[in-house]
Amino acid sequence: MDHIVTHEQTKPNNTRQLLNKTFQKVAAAVLITAITAFAGNYAFAGVFAKFSRSISGAIIFMVLMFALISQVQKSIQSRQAKRGTKLFYGLAGLNGLFLSYIFSYFSLGTIGASFLVTSGLFLALARFGLTTEKDLISWQKGLFITLIGVIVLSLFSLFIGTTVVSLMINIAILVLFSLYTIFDTNQLVRRYERISHSDIEGVSSLFALTLYMDFINIYLSILQLLGNND
Q: Considering its fold, how many domains does the chain have in total?
């Protein structure tokens, strides 16, 4: 009987540790991105701005990002969780350098206000995803189809970049990744209710990566919407 009680007490503790570690890593990654973005702008003012806003620069960045994401996933799947975590933080740093262009296009006030709005929205969405009693796995297919549509629309906007199209894309990205934040946090607790202590490091890095990308996409869409007058 004592053994059963001990097991039941361990399960919620592991879940709580998983949640704490996941959001700690998300916060650390966002901080790394902010620091490297500021440092990149300070040390190479204008260089990253031109690179980031060019089609060739965007393609190179996307290739590097997908390569790092793939390496993070492979490391964790091969039980090299610490290596996966280090690569995740490296990805956050690389993303910060790429995003240093925002200092050339938006005021510090807009950048700061967008961050505060994003942080509040992200935490509210995450809380909803964690506390809702429903399993939102049924959202997965619809979210993926919508993501493909947004990507296609974004590529289309490279050739026909009107203000209306840009506004539609930013609103679509904001809504999509807001829903993804709810879905990802929901699946974090729904799929890993019985996680073992040894798996916490790897699983927390995988979900931290996903939630970090949700946060960044929400932030950039809000930045674009608030920064139209900059």
A: 1
